[in-house]
Amino acid sequence: MVALLVVAVALSLGVGARPIAPGVVWEALFAQDPTNPDHIVVLTQRVPRTVIGIVAGASLALAGTVMQGLTRNPLADPGLLGVNAGASVAVLAAIVLLGVSKPSGFVWFAFAGAAVAALVVAAIGSRGPDGGNPAKLALTGAAVTAGITAVTMLILTTQIVALDVYRYWSVGGLTARGLDSVALVGIPILLGAVLAIASARGLDLIALGEDTASGLGHNVARTRTVGIVATILLCGGATAIAGPIVFLGLLVPHALRAVIGDDYARLLAIGVPAGASVLVLSDVVGRVIAPPGEVQAGIVVAFVGAPVLIALVLRRRRVVL
């Protein structure tokens, strides 16, 4: 997966409406000429979107793996916590109330909206005698997402200007953002990654059943809390810099599970380069399939990933007796 990521980065820096030779890319990175237009394209356009793709893809893969572990559902998605819905309504509020019109200006609004929505879902889903139950958490997430989506649709149907700005951000992509956006959410994402990796052992025990994990002396509530916080930081940060990229957090860990099994330490470790590779390669594909324009990476992920996931779900499993 690391080798695949290296190939993806090389393609991302060289492929596009303006093809650039590998030697020129190398010069742009290590011996740049400010007057060379190819160097300018590499440094100002392709490097930022490649870095954003790596960070967002890895974050979503980690968040998806943790969420699938917490819910004991291999088809769970980080959006289960209402992250995408919360980010969307916050971005709309920024557009309508504050007049923000550039994707680079949505970063903190998207992150804050995602975090608030996820915290609301976690707080409600954790109440009661069966608080934190995966089914209860999923139902709470669906209810909160439905409510936020209704508010989003109300704003979009009454504010035409908001629709014009929002529709570009809502499909998810790596363009029109800079490295400054990554810097803003870098620390929260790094903290989320550390928490996600630290929860690996707990997720392995929860996979045996919460009663079994508790019987072995494990603090299930602590693992659940750490996992939810990690998911909020990772998915919130990724959504803030790349928009609501759907499907990637579900597809990557599910596909890896079919290959390497259910060891969460391995799933999380391999998920980092795998998720980054998927999003960066999706961005590369989007640049070349509809010239002279581009298709946003979020659309490519959904379009290509859907049949792959369907094949994984429907494939026949061999049973060894």
TrEMBL record:
GO terms for biological process: siderophore-iron import into cell. It is found in: Cell membrane. Keywords: Cell membrane, Membrane, Transmembrane, Transmembrane helix, Transport. The keyword Membrane applies. It is a multi-pass membrane protein. SUPFAM superfamilies: ABC transporter involved in vitamin B12 uptake, BtuC. The keyword Transmembrane helix applies. One of its GO terms (molecular function) is transmembrane transporter activity. The chain crosses the membrane at residues 47-67, 79-100, 106-125, 137-162, 182-207, 228-252, 264-285, 297-314. GO terms for cellular component: plasma membrane. It holds the Pfam family FecCD. Belongs to the binding-protein-dependent transport system permease family. FecCD subfamily. This is Iron chelate uptake ABC transporter family permease subunit. It comes from Microbacterium ulmi.
